[in-house]
Amino acid sequence: MARTTPARSQFRPAAGIDQSILREHKGLLAEIDRRKLLRGTLSLGALTMLTGCDVADDGSVRKALLAVSQWNDRVQAAIFRGDHLAPTYPESAVLKPARFNAYYDVEEIRPLDGATWTLELAGLIGDKRRWTAQQMAALPETELIVRHICVEGWDYVGQWSGVRLKDFLQRIGADLTAKYVAFTCADDYTESIDMATALHPQTILATRYGREPITDPFGYPLRLRMGTKLGFKNAKWITAISVTNTFPETFWSKQGFNWFAGI
Ligand SMILES: Nc1nc2c(c(=O)[nH]1)N[C@H]1C(S)=C(S)[C@@H](COP(=O)(O)O)O[C@H]1N2
Ligand SMILES: [Mo]
Description:
Layout: H1 19-24, H2 26-34, H3 44-51, H4 58-78, E1 118-123, E2 131-132, H5 133-137, E3 142-150, E4 154-164, H6 165-171, E5 180-185, E6 190-194, H7 195-198, E7 203-209, E8 212-213, E9 223-226, E10 238-244
Parallel strand pairs: 1-10
Antiparallel strand pairs: 1-2, 3-4, 4-7, 5-6, 5-10, 7-8, 7-9
Helix pairs in contact: 2-4
The structure holds the ligand Nc1nc2c(c(=O)[nH]1)N[C@H]1C(S)=C(S)[C@@H](COP(=O)(O)O)O[C@H]1N2 and molybdenum atom.
Ligand MTE is lined by residues 98-103, 148, 150, 185, 187, 189, 218, 231-232, 234-237.
């Protein structure tokens, strides 16, 4: 499976998984599959992403698979729930400041100018007028204190607030029967989610963290935050939102990685 290699080492997928190595670890793979990691959508691409390391030699493959297996237990406990509501936490559990991640290092972020930034709306939306950062931050807020889980194997509880995506989509006259909502970011990142997740009560367009405006590394002025999706789905530095029935490929899906990544 050939794929492009993102710059940051933690995200570097193996150029390909040696089939004989996988055969040797059939038991572990079966175990991961039995637990229906990411709703059974685990692909080899997702595995390379989940392991986050170069699975070139036997030792690292075994370590990586064990890490995935254990991580899966943690994820199941943390977010895989029948009622589809992610657990919430007390304010005392919130990590401040939040923990940064992107597919590049924090020194390389390019802060956005909140005074000139506007949100572009596209696709199946009735009112496509642009929104300013001030307007977005003035919308009625919902607060989420949920666990952010990154597939690199770390997590933290964060406190994000902003308008519910469902309320925003209604306000702009979006077609709520459409299949997908797609996000374009100021870096070359893109993400997209299913409409059910877009309408989920724990899905917000966050403008604040710990009740203060979100700072540059964490997606100022607007980022997506969902209780029911893994870290990488939570697009930062959003510049455009589009509603569509055509599957919107994403930064990661284009490289063969798992798209749903949640409950
Ligand atoms: N635009 C953009 N959004 C992004 C990323 C990115 O590189 N660019 N990285 C994702 C990943 S992998 C994670 S874990 C979270 C990290 O969010 P945080 O820095 O707020 O903890 O952002 C996600 N959203
Ligand atoms: Mo992540």
